[in-house]
């Protein structure tokens, strides 16, 4: 299970937000995130807030979970209205986890219906669910599409059996293509998620995974470097010497290969770890996060952000269900980052996307650093002369270092 939540300040039981959230609210997009914390098996690398059936214990159940989330969504709509915020329809909805598609498709449809009833959906709203390839059927995907889902993001991770085994993934590699075909037949857009840098994965293994993913014809591909989180089973295996540790140079080689193959296949990067066929197939939900939009996060451990105020729900499904059943806010704590924290975060997030960070938003020392970053081949010269900090390919490999120089760390 995931590490501890932030401490923050106490969150009021009625969820009421301070008047400061009203400033500029009409210009900010609004999104909804729904956390489904259930997994059939806990993957060895994962430290997300997820639970297998054996870990749930008393006081929570997959059977009653959708109803609990629907109650929180109704509560959330009432909180935003009571706080004086203007009515805003959701432009994006994202079901993440966990494995959302472990719940019956009818349950996911009911939760989306609760979002529609509470806030409404913008015309052409993007509605995504994550899914494991072995957790869907043609019928379940058709049910989701009929309910208003527009997109499914499959956790492929790798096409190589020995890599999947190290990651504790349970699906067979050939199941991914089958699931993608079913999603296409249902009329859904498709994203495929990959992980590179798994202990024991060769460069040719990674090439095979990329080529296999591309062969399915997805609209979008995410490729994430494996991070070893403390407390996970994989971290323990590395510590015991059962599998080798990860290697930064190996990560760099695999990122460069991903860029080469994905670009050749007609994909373009729009965030350091994300590529799409065109602007229309970018993940608009994640872009809303990166650009500072508002969102309500429903479910245990889910985080929310409205007008600079952030809060996070209690972690365990049993504690969460108890809160929402009593009509109280499920929030465990909240915070309002100060101007310094907001400045740092904006620089970190906007530097990672293809549109880049407006140089005018940097402090003088940050603007002075741009010339050196151009000289080092980390920032695109033409974009910089036009007033934006946009990473080169080499800059993407060293994105954190670029941000540190811009922030004069």
UniProtKB/TrEMBL annotation:
First-listed, main subcellular location of the protein, grouped into a coarse class: cytoplasm
Species of provenance: Zafaria cholistanensis
GO cellular component, one term: cytoplasm
Family: Belongs to the anaerobic coproporphyrinogen-III oxidase family. HemW subfamily.
Residue ranges annotated for the Radical SAM core domain, each copy included: 24-265
Span list, region Disordered: 1-20
PROSITE patterns: RADICAL_SAM
UniProt-annotated location(s): Cytoplasm
Protein name, entry field: Heme chaperone HemW
Pfam families for the chain: Radical_SAM
């Amino acid at each position: 299970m995931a590490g501890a939540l932030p401490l923050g300040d106490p969150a009021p039981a009625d969820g009421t937000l301070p008047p400061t959230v009203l400033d500029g609210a009409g210009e900010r997009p609004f999104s909804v995130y729904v956390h489904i914390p259930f997994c059939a098996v806990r993957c060895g690398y994962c430290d997300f807030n997820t639970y297998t059936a054996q870990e749930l214990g008393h006081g929570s159940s997959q059977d009653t979970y959708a109803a609990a989330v629907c109650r929180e969504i109704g509560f959330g709509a009432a909180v935003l209205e009571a706080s004086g915020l203007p009515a805003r329809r959701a432009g994006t909805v994202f079901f993440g986890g966990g494995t959302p598609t472990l719940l019956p498709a009818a349950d996911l449809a009911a939760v989306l219906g609760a979002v529609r009833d509470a806030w409404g959906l913008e015309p052409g709203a993007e509605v995504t669910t994550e899914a494991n390839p072995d957790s869907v059927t043609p019928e379940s995907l058709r049910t989701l599409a009929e309910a208003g889902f527009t997109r499914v993001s499959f956790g492929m991770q790798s096409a190589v059996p020995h890599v999947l085994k190290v990651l504790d993934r349970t699906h067979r590699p050939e199941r991914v293509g089958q699931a993608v075909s079913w999603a296409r037949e249902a009329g859904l857009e498709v994203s495929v998620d990959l992980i590179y840098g798994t202990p024991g994965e060769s460069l040719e293994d990674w090439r095979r995974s990329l080529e296999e993913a591309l062969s399915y014809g997805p609209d979008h591909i995410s490729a994430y470097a494996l991070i070893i989180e403390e407390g996970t089973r994989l971290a323990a295996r590395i510590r015991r010497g059962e599998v080798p540790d990860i290697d930064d140079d190996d990560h760099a080689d695999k990122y460069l290969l991903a860029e080469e193959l994905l670009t050749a296949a007609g994909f373009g990067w729009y965030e350091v770890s994300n590529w799409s066929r065109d602007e229309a197939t970018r993940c608009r939900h994640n872009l809303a996060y990166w650009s500072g939009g508002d969102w309500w996060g429903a479910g245990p451990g889910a985080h929310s952000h409205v007008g600079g105020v952030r809060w996070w729900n209690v972690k365990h499904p049993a504690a969460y269900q108890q809160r929402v059943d009593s009509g109280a806010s499920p929030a465990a704590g909240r915070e309002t980052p100060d101007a310094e924290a907001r400045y740092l975060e904006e620089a970190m997030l906007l530097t990672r996307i293809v549109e880049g960070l407006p140089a005018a938003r940097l402090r003088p020392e940050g603007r002075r650093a741009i010339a050196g970053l151009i000289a080092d081949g980390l920032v695109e010269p033409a974009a910089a002369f036009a007033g934006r900090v946009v990473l080169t390919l080499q800059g993407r490999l060293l994105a954190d270092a670029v941000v540190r120089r811009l922030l004069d760390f």
